[in-house]
What does this fold into?
Amino acid sequence: MTAQMTSTAMPTAEQHGLVAHSDGAFVPVQTRSERFRSVNVEDFAPVNGREHEWKLSPVAAFADLTGGELDGARLPIETTDAPGVQVSWIARDDARIGTAGTPEERASANAWTAFDEALLISVTGEDEKVVAVTRSGLGTAPRAGHTVIEIAPNSRGLVVLRGIGDARLSENVEILVGDGASLTVVSLQEWNDDAVHLSSQFARLGRDSFLKHIVVSLGGKVVRVNPSTHLAEQGADIEALGLYFADAGQHLEQQVYVHHDAPHTKSRVTYKGALQGAGARTVWIGDVLIGNAATGTDSYEQNRNLVLTDGTRADSVPNLEIETGDIEGAGHASATGRFDDEQLFYLMARGISEDEARRLVVRGFLTEIVQKIGSPELEARLLVAIEAELQVS
Amino acid sequence: MSVLEIKNLHVNVETDQGTREILRGVDLVINEGEIHAIMGPNGSGKSTLAYTIAGHPKYHVVEGEILLDGENVLEMSVDARARAGLFLAMQYPVEIPGVTVTNFLRTAKTAIDGEAPSVRTWVKDVRESMANLRMDSNFAERNVNEGFSGGEKKRNEILQLELLKPRFAVLDETDSGLDVDALKIVSEGVNRAKANTGLGILLITHYTRILRYIKPDFVHVFVAGRIAEQGGPELADRLEDEGYDRYQVAEPAAAAAAE
Ligand SMILES: Nc1ncnc2c1ncn2[C@@H]1O[C@H](COP(=O)(O)OP(=O)(O)OP(=O)(O)O)[C@@H](O)[C@H]1O
Ligand SMILES: [Mg+2]
It folds into this structure.
């Protein structure tokens, strides 16, 4: 059997620049919040693939995005209408840009350096509303993007940011959640087979606000979506969900970072992925930092992978750093399991064909995430997309 | 009239220590509507026989035949056997995370019938069978066997037996782990299935207790990979009194092989 499953429950020195303490516990050399940041690509050394943020990624497949010049023109978009939602383009010097976060790696900084204007999706009003912004026809030349999603205090909304067709895109997405607001953002990657998409997403949550952030990666050759959430104000609450399905030759990655930086903040991170076919590859890294101001924090992160065939590899690396003793709870779980032959036998012994049995199990495994999206229309569409994935190999 | 024939069946498994012969020439004919009980010591190969009939890939048939109405079962895939009318109630039913009982039953029924069951009668049938087996309706929305107690798993097997309506069922220690009431409820379920469909049954058990509820037409004593003796229901009582010593003494070579 050639299936490789790396499932690392505890941080190790090898994985994350950690050193052993004299008491045997691991502490980071550098806490996550102190990583180098800059919006300027020249401030980062050229990528060689050994950097901790790149070591699990196929960097040679997108040297143009980390090192080359990017086209910073407006990305072609199509958007649906909803009352209380405005979609427009804003200049680089707009005051909102840069308030949610700053690049921590070179592809992100390269996009930041290159974009001409940013797409602004502005949501106001207490009524529930859904807006879908689809990026398509991006072509095969490397390009940069910048998007700001802003929701006014006490407002509600669901924003879908979807990618289809060709793309070689490095982008930054900033999500600004006003006090008391409740926002869902779905980053939906349904690119063509050859597409490369690197996305750093930064969310800053206001007081008592709630963000449901969902990453769904199905299509693309290399898709790397890294959401960082800054729980900057008291009572902020993030539910970070992810769903990915890697077929033969696909690399799907997500580096999730939650920074608890104020009292009584809450985070729930749940990512689930399926792997099928030779060379299907997934990476999940989950960093949670509970800062010393974050008393009363309640945090839990988990990643589960379902391996359907031989020849795949799933890396799963949760990291938890805690700087205050006064927390409600913090935990993590990581498991990579095989859809095993006994399960297959049981289903087939009830007349169900092998293909259908696989479909049944994967659908069941991933449905948990789909059901949490909160848009029946999108949920139904995603279930269909997952079925289609299963037909592929 | 349906018939399941097992002829001179020899089965090996691959182990870390090499190939092991487990079934050593099993002959058995089960006609529609008949109940055959199989009793025998631990490790004698009863589950191996059950799994081999169902087509588990771990068991390699090296000699012999299994025929269902003359059709070669050994050439069929696992799912094709189920669709042809064979059913195995497993000794250790498997947990299927992420798949609800409702979803599983509907998928299996659709696969076996070749078309989706009519929604109205199906929902009613499921509800009725669950009620008959005293399964709480919340089981329908739970994942298959996940977190079920031993007895609940066995009821879930019989629920499938009732709903999928096979022609022949192998019940591998369905009675083990059942309390007195559950044993009765499950036995009633099996008898109901038989009355409704003329099911033929191969019932593997260690205890005569279940044979008070599910009356066997034949009892087979299974020792060291083959049938050592057969008789009527009275044979079961004799086994309960005397155990299997008699057979193992009579066949020292076989007993050694079964160790
Ligand atoms: N996959 C396997 N690998 C190795 N040995 C096996 C395998 N399956 C069965 N065996 C061995 O074959 C023999 C028969 O096993 P089997 O499960 O058929 O016995 P059984 O009669 O059902 O026993 P019990 O009454 O305990 O259920 C045992 O010695 C068992 O260890
Ligand atoms: Mg057994």
Observations:
- Residues 1-27 of chain A have pLDDT under 50 and may be disordered.
- The helical segments of chain A are 13-16, 63-67, 106-114, 341-348, 354-370, 376-392.
- The pocket of adenosine-5'-triphosphate (ligand 1) is lined by residues B 13, 15, 20, 22, 40, 42-48, 58, 91 (CB under 6 Å).
- The interface with chain B takes residues 341-343, 345-354, 356, 360-368 of chain A (CB under 8 Å).
